[in-house]
Specification:
The chain has 369 residues and is of the alpha/beta class. The protein contains 12 helices and 12 strands. The structure holds ligand FNR. Ligand FNR binds next to strand 4 and helix 11. GO terms for molecular function: FMN binding; NADP binding; NADPH dehydrogenase activity.
């Protein structure tokens, strides 16, 4: 019998994923000073043991002030590497490929881990480990009236952050990660430069499309220069801001699908292998048409319009049949699953059973099959 699309391997550069199921990067808010912990080992490890092809670790701050919360993962110093190396080695021992997402939160930094919001509010002040004075962005425009006011990055700070991305990429390689993903979505720093909602600059980093994408393109170039040529580079993009009308105080409406696809074309030429198609995060005025697979059309459009670039689909893909159909209909090359895997860590193995595909059951668990 033919191998179902979800269980067909995917080779990108020198890395082969055994199936098309990726654990979507998800903040675990379980770090101190950016260090991964035993929680991460067990969390990531459970998916490696249970058949997920690619486990992608959560947004890791390339600088302390680039973390979303004081409890976010980081990769800004060499000391962070050792624990990550252990996690990667464990994943590899179970035939899972391992990835990590590099991020800078920009104006959305210094916030509170979800379960602490009720305790001390949505913003983390200095008393709660935050860094309000260090919050930065392309322009001094806060995300909302309730958010920290960012200071505007100057040219030297822009270059420093690009170096921080490259240094973090080098550390990710040292930890043994197979795949690197840059977080260019959800209203974090890379996306803040892309979107006219958060970028009102008048220098070469703002205004025209070519100027707004400059920070992302230069960052990708800096990372690709140090990330080994045999290892895949992914970028997660918000394919739209879902904001039709100009936001109050913003110079124009949101980042659009047309622009995102044009950027993807540029990124493909810069050595990006896959664009992971997400959306939203620039403005509280966003209006998201949530529905099963609601972001899949972005991946499908990307595949149709940018030949040679792989497309990742993510967002409310919750079942084996749904994920397999997305791939079988050639609407994406890889399916990222988030909350469905949080609910059911055995999803990948159950999917194989449901689709009639072979998947190596962990021999320790064979009697549970
Ligand atoms: C997320 N998401 C997310 N996305 C990202 O690019 N980097 C991240 O670190 C996080 N963190 C995160 C934490 C938690 C707890 C959740 C639930 C989500 C978004 C996630 O990767 C995914 O894109 C969305 O959850 C939509 O996919 P699902 O969950 O519908 O499969």
């Amino acid at each position: 019998a033919a191998v179902p699309a979800l269980y067909q391997p995917l080779t990108v550069r020198g890395v082969t994923l055994k199936n098309r199921i990726a654990l979507s990067p998800m903040c675990m808010y379980s770090s101190q000073d950016g260090f991964a912990t035993d929680f991460h080992l067990v969390h990531v490890g459970q998916y490696a043991v249970r058949g997920v092809g690619l486990v992608v670790m959560e947004a890791a701050g390339v600088a302390p002030e680039g973390r979303i919360t004081p409890h976010c993962l980081g990769l800004w110093k060499d000391a962070h590497v050792a624990k990550l190396r252990q996690i990667v080695a464990f994943a590899h021992a179970h035939k899972a490929a391992a990835g990590i997402q590099l991020a800078h939160a920009g104006r959305k930094a210094s916030t509170t881990a979800p379960w602490l919001i009720k305790v001390h509010g949505a913003n983390a002040d200095a008393a709660h480990g935050g860094w309000p004075g260090g919050v930065c962005g392309p322009s001094p425009l806060p995300f909302s009236d309730a958010s920290w006011a960012p200071h505007e990055l100057d040219a030297a700070a822009i270059r420093r952050i690009q170096r921080e991305f490259a240094d973090a990429a080098r550390r990710a390689d040292a930890a043994g990660f197979d795949v690197l993903e840059l977080h260019g979505a959800h209203g974090y720093l890379l996306h803040q430069f892309l979107s006219p909602i958060s970028n009102a600059r008048t220098d070469e980093y703002g205004g025209s499309f070519d100027n707004r994408i400059r920070f992302v393109v230069e960052t990708v170039r800096a990372v690709r220069a140090v990330w080994p040529p045999e290892k895949p580079l992914f970028v997660r993009l918000s394919m739209t801001d879902w904001v039709a009308a100009p936001a109050p105080g913003a110079p124009a409406g949101g980042w659009t699908e047309e622009e995102a696809i044009e950027l993807a074309r540029v990124l493909s030429r810069e050595g990006v292998d896959l664009v992971d198609c997400s959306s939203s995060g620039s403005s509280p005025l966003q209006s998201i048409p949530l529905a099963p697979g609601y972001q899949v059309p972005f991946a499908a459009a990307l595949k149709a319009q940018v030949p040679g670039l792989l497309a990742g689909a993510v967002g409310l893909i919750t079942s084996a049949a749904q994920a397999n159909a997305v791939l079988a209909e050639q609407r994406a090359d890889l399916v990222f699953m988030g909350r469905a895997l949080l609910r059911d860590p055995n999803l990948a193995l159950d999917a194989a059973a449901q689709l009639g595909a072979f998947a190596q059951y962990p021999h320790q668990y064979e009697r549970g099959r």
